[in-house]
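Hey team,

Sharing the DUF5680 domain-containing protein run so nobody has to redo it. Sequence (149 residues) first:
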Amino acid sequence: MDQRALREFVVDAHRNGYAAGNGDPTGDGGTVVEYVTGNWRYVDRYYGSTAFLGSEIVFFDETPVWGMHYAGEPTGYDGDDEHIYKFLREALEQAPVEMPYRGPRRYAADSFVYRTVSDGTITRFSGTERIDCEGVPVYRGRFGGGRIE
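Structure output:
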């Protein structure tokens, strides 16, 4: 598996998936986002709108080759949670090809700051993410995944 091509596809899928506001109801209370280009297919399935849990699977030639699980929730924000998730989508659009799991190490806009820390490589990784508003933590998340053989 060409790791660079995989990383580039994951970034592209993220930018065209949840970060872009795309998704369809699953019928069992979840949301599914699918993105296809060439031989690559990405499927993101998640549940919940405030506290959420989800997984992403990348297929190459219809064979699952990579996956990630993730979960997150607000941590006492006094405002509308949609402000947090709008900012989270903005941060996820900024993910670098070198570290395509969630967002960049740091992204700031208005009064929000997104940060992520991860260990590993595209083949096996784990990490955390958080959003602060005016220095106060308002969201936290966890993620992990890697290759599927």
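The CA atoms of residues 75 and 98 lie 29 Å apart.

Ping me if you want the raw files.
A.
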